[in-house]
């Protein structure tokens, strides 16, 4: 049966489909080190030429915001002057 | 206590409103414990099914009739492994470890789709699996792409993109056999006979006997009921069988104008639920064999995992020494 086995490190995988686009998160994989993480990420997430560049990052190294503090973190409703529609310009100025 | 209870109800209601607005739930969002547990169970079972699903087909890789068929089958089985991994990683975001899930599969505690407890005695079974089993899986999985849980939905989108190749390769195998010699056509028909009912059973119990469906639909984990999906499957497959001259083994199968809200659909015969429950409870033709194969692979792969860890440690030590 299952003996005493170590959990392997969890890595998040990001793939860039082509130059000009950003790397995008596509999932995670388990691997004991970065080389094997890269190899598995390629095998698991790019079997059909989905990308031309891969990043793998240890999941524990990602610092994330708290979803319960979404309002405090992301509120911008009180700063409407940051949006173009806040400013009145005559219609006949055209697109601006 | 009363206050706590009220808070709990309020947060449940807030959660339901969020679901009703079609907002996705992401890993760190608060969610009811039953939502979390239902998803862990469902995604875990789904992942195990992909992994065990490699076994019946793996059985034929070395005996595929041509190099072309062998390449396709290898790629398909490799995809199933990948699908298992996408799904395990979705389940892990809910707080269950990979090792725990692996142990539950190996100990026989976790369930996986009963369809993989049937044997693949001929090459035509590989065709039938791709066509019917992957066909049924696609019916199930397409609505899951809109599941309320973000990581599950995203994994399903990826899986569905890859799955259509699987069904096409299966149907092509059946088509080729059906156009072949009388013997080959007979082999295809027999495989259809073997896989038809187990495939129809893949959608699970009738709605009346599926107590979890209502909650799952309410939480948008499921978008359709078992019977709705089963109907879609039968309606899709019957004409495909006719097209290649094979006969669906159900004497009660007939066109029924009233089905699908008057748009018409196929009426089909009664499912053998005794068989369904027997296989679910572990008494199918291949249940023991499948679990033993997984245990064997796990045990024999133990030195590989140990070596990978040792290698990682050695490199890390060397790196630290150099710094």
Description:
The complex is a heterodimer of chains A (96) and B (323). Chain A is an alpha+beta fold. Chain A has two helices and three strands, in the order ββαβα. Chain A has a three-stranded antiparallel sheet with strand order 2-1-3, with helices on one face. In chain A, strand 1 (9-16) and strand 2 form a beta hairpin. Chain B has 323 residues and is an all-alpha fold. The interface between A and B is medium-sized, with 27 and 34 residues.
Any chance you could write out the topology, listing elements then pairs?
The complex is a heterodimer of chains A (96) and B (323).
Chain A: E1 9-16, E2 24-31, H1 34-45, E3 53-58, H2 70-74
Antiparallel strand pairs in A: 1-2, 1-3
Chain B: H1 2-20, H2 33-52, H3 54-58, H4 67-92, H5 98-107, H6 123-144, H7 150-178, H8 182-201, H9 213-218, H10 226-243, E1 254-256, E2 265-267, H11 273-280, H12 287-300, H13 302-322
Antiparallel strand pairs in B: 1-2
Quick rundown:
Chain A is α+β, with helices and mostly antiparallel strands and 96 residues long. Chain A has helices at residues 34-45, 70-74, and strands at 9-16, 24-31, 53-58.
Quick tags:
heterodimer; A: about 100 residues; three-stranded antiparallel sheet; 2 helices; about 25% strand; B: about 325 residues; mainly alpha; 2 strands; about 65% helix
Q: Give helix % range of chain A.
A: 10-25%
DSSP strand count of chain B: 2
Helix content of chain B: 55-70%
Bulk shape of chain A: elongated
Radius of gyration of chain B: 22 Å
Radius of gyration of chain A: 22 Å
Q: Count every helix of chain B, treating DSSP H or I runs of 4 or more residues as helices.
A: 13
Residue-averaged pLDDT of chain B = 95
